[in-house]
Amino acid sequence: MKTLFDRSVPGRHCSILPACDVEVRTPAETRSSALHLPELSETDISRHYTELAKQTFGVNDGFYPLGSCTMKYNPKINERAASLSGFTNIHPTQDHVQGSLKLLHTAEKYLCEITGMDAMTFQPAAGAHGELTGLMLIKRYHELSGHPERTKIIVPDSAHGTNPASSAMCGFTVVNIPSAPDGCVDLERLKEACGEDTAGLMLTNPNTLGIFDRNIQQITEIVHAAGGLCYYDGANLNPVMGIVRPGDMGFDCIHLNLHKSFSTPHGGGGPGSGPVGCKKFLEAYLPGDRITEKDGVYSIEQRSEESIGAVRSFHGNFLVIVKAFAYLTALGKQGVPEAAQNAVLNANYLKHKLEDTYELANKGICMHEFVLTLEGLKKEIGVSAMDVAKALQDYGIHPPTMYFPLNVHEALMVEPTETESKEMLDHVAEIFLDVWKKAHEDPEYLHGAPHHSPIKRPDEVKAARHPVLRVPLHD
Amino acid sequence: MGSYVPSTLKQREEMLREAGFSSMEDLYRDIPDELKRKEPLDLPDGKSELETDRILRSLAMENKEYLSVFRGAGAYRHYIPAIVQSVVNKEEFVTAYTPYQAEISQGVLQSIFEYQTMICELTGMDVSNASVYDGAVAAAEAVSMCRTPKKKKVYISAGVHPDTLKVVRTYCWAAQDEVVVLPLKDGKTDLSGVDGEGASCLILQQPNYFGIIEDAKAAGECAHAAGLTYVLSMDPFAMCLLPSPAEYGADIAIGEGQPLGMPLSFGGPYLGFMAATSKMMRKLPGRIVGETTDADGNKAYVLTLQAREQHIRREKASSNICSNEALCAMTASVYLAAMGPEGMREAARQCYSKSHYLAQEFERIGLKRAYDADFFQEFVTVCDDPEAMLAKLDAKGILGGQPVEGGILWCATEANTKEEIDALVKEVSA
Amino acid sequence: MKTPVELKYAKTHEWVRFTSDTECEVGLTDYAQDALGDLVFVNLPEPDAEAVKGETICDVESVKAVSDVYAPVSGTVTEVNEELLDAPEKINEDPYGAWLFRLSDVSDADELLDAEAYEKHCEEEGN
After folding, report:
1. Is the N or the C terminus of chain A less surrounded, counting Cβ atoms within 10 Å?
2. How far is A198 from chain B, CA to nearest CA, in Å?
3. Regarding the domain delimited by B68-79+342-429, which CATH topology (the fold level of the hierarchy) does it fall under?
């Protein structure tokens, strides 16, 4: 497809600005190099992006079981609320923002109630950003309690890749511990890893295999006994919100992905929002300003010197928080656990439909997602997880997460979410079974999949060996 | 109550039975009972869509919208063409995930590729990433690109946005880097304290927080003479009128992309852009899209250079970023496409001209500027009682400048008319 | 799998070509490049870097993985093969021609394997 630059015609333009109504001046030193932006009409732009939209698959286009990403439906009322001019036209440093402050304060209260935390910051703009912020709280805690020697963060090998990367950014050394076959923490290995240099543990529960670690209280106790703190990676909160709380499991701080559990859209890669919550004893270290309420009047208060400072400008991705707040308002006390329960039900129902055919990485009840291993299929007939994923595209559904978690070979991680109907799950189960049949009848067909998408499989080796990262322009 | 679960109660029972569960509670039989919450969540009852709409609208109405805005200070009000919202509201773009499955994500991938190209064109740099969270984080990520075990010191101008300084300090504290703040002298960064020993980079903002046009070329020469990487944070409009980051000698060009079509939105979502010389390509954080071919030899786009990133390099990755601001990057692309090269230059000229007109009018009524140096679209006037001045304007529906030490930081862009400016000056002098 | 007899090998799958008693070239073996798949980039060591036997000296990237390269012997890096920066595919195409770096003041070379022993080692590892 043509790029915006290919469509450019010299001299073409949209009429956006009036002529300058004051005397035109120019600075002493000006830009000398050319400015090659595309020259287009509004029709060109509109049609270009409409064409791009047709080559993009969103939750609105169909089933999107991307494991660990919680691609639930994004309610439209959230979008409309976030587009109200009373939110979009507000300068971040202006006064008279009671509406914004009340919204942030109430969202903090709701999310603390759901997670069992005491305070929260909305500055982090994504999950990984939240992880970094949470680890900074842990670092600050040890620093101020006179234990700067606590520099090691324990991360199970089944963790999201962001966990070790965030630890390293925070100046910690990562201690990887192998998990038990079901992805749960091996208590003995954890005990061995804990010591006087332990700063903390990072964990998701349910874990990346979709299993709730029933030893969770023992796990957090072991870390606490060693003097470390426990960090909850909230990427997998969806199946347990309103059912169990990270705070009650023994976690000291957490991040949430509002763009996962709380229905805000992912925008093809962002903006997200990764608020960080913590227990009272860590509150003083939170970044950004604090919002307080007295007699129904909300104000912005600076935090003390003990705060880690700031991890983003202003108050974070405010409009994303508006969307999540609209979602929480609609769901309320009944709707939040209802969403969680149905996420678990849908995952178990689909798993049940597939488990006689596909091999599961782990037997038993799953939470919001389950992991298939195609290792057997690969060995037997040479069809890989990649082949199956690509074949699924031809049926108009988005493939599951591939090759994660790392401790499962040929993994496909399936997370249907609660916003899919029984009819859809039945239909999807048939698709999976059909692909399985095709794989046995005609493996070559799967190696060549997808067959009906806008492009065939791209050459990723070529892209990485000889990077072309922009439209080439010719003067 | 509100719910987005489509299955009926009857269907849920069928599904439970078929999957071997006796009830919804039974789904959680693996979770120890003592962990489970006994009482319902302490949240209000769920609401219908109509009620939710009413609640959100009433909150929005509790914020004050100003008709006339003369405040920037890191968040700028520019005119946003209608096509911008129309394009970025398309559901496919709004609801897609990061484009891992290239075959069904060519639209998002191509849009990022085009964004990268436009950022390269604006900055004059060789390569751009797909965005980071905001301009402040872009500065902190730039420091991470420059850090080596032997280079653990950073020079940063006191003229950067206060939030940028705070964020860089916070990230550097975590990574155990030393931050040396270069003071301002007559509104411009004093470079006399720069010494390359053990330092990795120098960060300057153009124009600086107080609107002043820095001697950005000299700063680059100073950085390079000391063996430092030169990180220049620059307003995207300023780039179209003043020399580009590349012309100033930047090795890494960063900045806040909010002015490119994003509303003020009480601070976010915004857009951090990052571009660099090809030498630093593999140090860029975050997603990068590349062009390649598919199995049939047709043009295709993919996420590339992924071995830099956290999901592969894990604790050895220099950044942990994955989710970024993709839809904001698309917003910037559509905005730049609608404005075109001449529109961008014209907007930049108008920002410069109107802010100078405002400064001239202020001077006419006796308001003194705090610094003599030339400025782009913002300037500081000396004011003894900013609060009183701003309150007076507020009563007239005008959002005045940002209170800063010793005065008020005013901003005028192409979105302010002469009439508006004259009205402001009249109120100030009243 | 090719294993030239004139070279020495480390168990971590690097080959060593001695150019004098105290100088050598180091690269990745055919077995290694085959296991790693299509390589897309090489992060070469800094010239003058100290190589310590058994420790990571640089890494190589495929599309979906990063693999450490270990120093097969100790020494000082005198030169790196910058040609590989633009053509990492050379490691896949000609593993014994595509040297990564050269070392001087080589020591700790006692435990290197000859071709036969290395082939046996690969066989065992493959099982």
Report:
1. C
2. 16
3. Aspartate Aminotransferase, domain 1 (3.90.1150)
